[in-house]
Amino acid sequence: TYTCKNLCDLVSVTTAEALLTYQEDFYQGMPALTKNRYGNGTAYYICADMEQDFYNDFYRLLAEKAELSLPVVWEIPEGIEVATRESEDTQYLFVQNFNAEAVRVPLAEEDGEVLVGKKTNELPGYGSVVLRRKRK
Questions:
Q1: pTM (2 decimals)?
Q2: Cβ of 85: how many Cβ atoms within 10 Å?
Q3: Are 59 and 93 in contact (CB under 8 A)?
Q4: How does pLDDT run along the chain (136 residues), one tens digit per residue?
């Protein structure tokens, strides 16, 4: 179970499947998360402003089902964004801190060589580092 706040959408499903439902109050029994298949695709609709644990669990599950690999082996802290860009043989890793304060980011040797910034275990507030590594 997860908590939600601020926004709870009232949704009626016709072709979609309700994966989660609200458990109490006025919304009880209404869908809180739906899944709808169309052609070869699948769409999910999150019907509420869920707590962060929901998003962590939900997106991790979707990534596992799609057999996506994470760009780093360490846990990504809150406020840190990790993105990649790739060419045929090289992957560029962009690590950005959107927090005002410094955040511990355990960059590892396998994360690649630094192109921009410094490879430290603490990324300064609003700091960034860009790394390059060979694709696996």
A1: 0.67
A2: 10
A3: no
A4: 898 888 888 999 999 999 999 998 888 899 999 999 999 999 999 999 999 999 989 998 998 999 988 888 888 899 999 999 999 999 999 999 999 999 999 888 888 888 898 888 899 999 999 999 998 7
